[in-house]
Amino acid sequence: MREPSPEITQRELRNDAGAILRAVERGESCTITRNGTPIGCLIPLGWRTYVHREQVMAAFAASPTVDPERLRADLDAAAEQDPFDRDR
């Protein structure tokens, strides 16, 4: 399992942004906190973040099931188009 990223306070980010961004540029990531509460993450672009299967399955476990026909009908209604009317 991946090690948790180091936590950096809002104040540390403000006071040492250059060094922190250089670390991110080297491939490191960090979690930004405000008053001890995590509010965001800095991750390097271009680096793939691996998410364990268990985490993905847990994230989608409570997701609603998508009915493809209803989704298409909703999208067509929102776009105000008839997919079979090609004369427009």
TrEMBL record:
Highest taxon listed in the record's lineage: Bacteria
InterPro entries linked to this entry: YefM-like_sf
NCBIfam families linked to this entry: phd_fam
Protein family according to the UniProt entry: Belongs to the phD/YefM antitoxin family.
Name of this chain's protein: Prevent-host-death family protein
